[in-house]
Every structure is written in C-alpha cells, then in structure tokens.
Write a structure and sequence with these properties.
5-stranded parallel beta sheet, two-stranded parallel sheet, Rossmann fold, alpha/beta
C-alpha cells in the first residue's frame, strides 16, 4: 500500500518521482505484468455453433430438417467451379471461413487433401436458441480450452417463429416481443456459460441483421398494407439483439461482440460504400432452382442457390445484392461480417 502525503509537506521534486513510480507499478499490474497492453491471440482450433448463417453442408442429412446438404453448400449464393457444374467451397466464403482462414485453421467440410482438421461446424440449419444448447452439449470433437475460439450466431428462427405467431393470431405483439427478449437473454447466458474460468475458450457472439429491412418485410408490407409487419420484424430483431447484448458478461478477456446488425443496417443505408446496387430485393431467383431444391422447406431453399440461379439483374456479380433470399444476407455481408469477426479477435484482450 502506498501512503499519500499532503503536497505541502513534500517538495515537488520528491512528489513527481513517487507519482511516476506509482503510475508505472499500476500499469504493470493492469497489464498482468506484461510489457504489452494486449497480447496476441492465436487460436489453435475453431468451434462453430448456431444456425445456417454459419453452416457448410457436409454431404449428409441436415439434422433438424431431414434433407441432404450437398458437401460444400452454403445458405448464401454458392459459387461454382470453372466448368460451372460442381460447387466451389473455397469461393463465396461465409463468415466463419473468413475467420478460419485468417488463423490458418482448416475448417471441415471445406478442407483440402492433406489438411488436418482444426475447425468444427456444429451449427445446424434452422437451429433455434434451444437447439444451440443441444449443440454445445453434444460437441465432443475438441476440448473448449483457452486456445479455442468459439462462435455463436443464432436467433433468426426464434424471431421468425414469433413473427409467424403474431401473423397467425396465436400471439399478441407484446407476447411475441417478450418471447424474443427472453430468448435473447437465454442465448446471452448460454454464451457467458461457455467460459467459467481463465482456462475456458474465447467466444465471439453476434447481433443479427434487422429483418424489418429484409425482402420478407418488403413483400409483407406490399401484401398487407397498414398492418405494420415490417415494423414488427424490426421490433422483434431489436428486442432479441438488445437482450442478447445485455445478458453476456461484460468481460473482453473472454467474450467479443461482432455487431452484425449494425453492419447490415449501415450497408443498407449506404450501399455505394459497400459496392452494393440492390438492398431491397433478393439476388436468387427461385424459379431457376432445381426440383430437388424446390422440394425443400421454403426458408431453406437458398441452399440450392448458385451463380447460375440469380436474377438476370444480379448475374455477373454475387456481391452487388445485399440479400441472397427473403431472410438471409448474401456474400457481401458474409465477407464483411467475417472481417469484422477477425478484427474483434485482434482488438479484444483475448
């Protein structure tokens, strides 16, 4: 403990060295004894939880939906190889691929021959927040320790469920808002619970794009004028995002927020800054989908969207449209969201 003396009793030339020494010691304590304010974080593995915003098909059956997810297929605009037949998993990257690539972590199922897997996708298409808890409980492939980077992005389908309930008349607007707020709180507590000590993993979690700005909302407003369906979707998204943020322990050593919601809003508001030409319509043209794709539930048909099934106006570039379909952002947001995630891992004191 340092004893403070009245300045009047100490000459200035003696006060200054004492203060400087005290400040230096405090600086060392604050940095944990390190000469660096923030030490570099270099994860040795990546584990991905959540919904289809983070999914890459592994050629098997989608656990929650029961249909086949072709190997390398993503819920965005899928790129094809040079001959235009097979999926090109190494192009049109989703955000977790950007993150994994930055740290040199081969991410199944898009690994190349000879790679040793260091990234695992436990996320599932259609997952609600309750399903994420089950993903975490079931994950056994690698320990969630201090050099593990964990990502959690979910809530999209909880918001859509609440919206559908209001539209169907089974819930009031207030009840739906309370539901999604509770789910946001649940996910926030789940994120916090993933790390119970300094030996636990480092975790990235994210807010969601405003569904009130989606093609789903635009179509609903046109079909049902005066009902305020776009506003409802915005309110539900905001209620979820707000409670998620409030419910994660505010400790940057372990938890990092990637604000996907604000990123989306900014991109939509200032499209030219992000090389976007269309922020209202979806890029994918479902009339061009295969019969196999059209047999899927509507909200998951995006799995079959490729560079050959775009609207004519979107052809030639997969990044000029913000939305891939009615509810899912396209490759432009995915790429920038991935870059924002990388930035967060480097600025947080992980």
């Amino acid at each position: 403990m340092f004893r403070m003396f009245p300045a009047a009793l100490m000459p200035l030339r003696r006060v200054a060295p004492l203060l400087l020494a005290t400040m230096a010691l405090a600086g060392l304590v604050a940095c944990g004894g390190s000469t660096s304010r923030v030490e570099s974080f270099d994860p040795s593995r990546l584990v991905v939880f959540g919904d289809e915003l983070s999914v890459i098909g592994n050629g098997g059956t989608a656990a929650l939906q029961g249909y086949t997810e072709p190997a390398g297929a993503k819920y965005t605009v899928n790129a094809l190889d040079d001959d235009g037949t097979a999926l090109n998993c190494s192009s049109s990257l989703i955000w977790v691929q950007v993150l994994a690539s930055n740290y040199g972590l081969p991410l199944g199922p898009c690994m190349t021959s000879g790679d040793t897997q260091r990234g695992w996708i436990a996320a599932q298409a259609g997952a609600r927040v309750a399903d994420v808890a089950a993903q975490v409980a079931a994950f056994q492939d690698a320990p969630l320790v201090a050099d593990t980077l964990v990502t959690v992005v979910a809530g999209l389908h909880d918001i859509l469920d609440a919206y559908d309930a209001v539209v169907a008349g089974s819930k009031t607007r207030a009840e739906a808002l309370a539901d999604v707020a509770a789910v946001g709180t649940q996910l926030g507590k789940m994120v916090t619970g993933l790390n119970t000590s300094t030996e636990g993993p480092r975790i990235l979690y994210a807010t969601l794009p405003d569904l009130g700005q989606s093609p789903l909302a635009v179509k609903a407003e046109a079909a049902f004028p005066g009902e305020g369906r776009a506003a409802l979707l915005s309110e539900l998204t905001e209620a979820f995002n707000t409670q998620l943020r409030l419910s994660v322990t505010n400790d940057g050593r372990f938890y990092g927020l990637v604000n996907g919601g604000d990123l989306a809003t900014t991109m939509i508001k200032y499209p030219s800054r992000y090389s976007l030409t269309e922020v209202v319509s979806a890029a994918c043209d479902s009339s061009k989908y295969s019969t196999t794709t059209l047999a899927l539930p509507e909200r998951f048909q995006l799995l079959g969207c490729t560079t050959t099934t775009l609207l004519d106006a979107a052809a030639g570039s997969i990044t000029t449209y913000f939305w891939a379909d009615d509810i899912h952002p396209g490759p432009n947001w995915q790429s920038r969201f991935g870059s924002a995630a990388v930035s967060r891992t480097k600025t947080n004191p992980f």
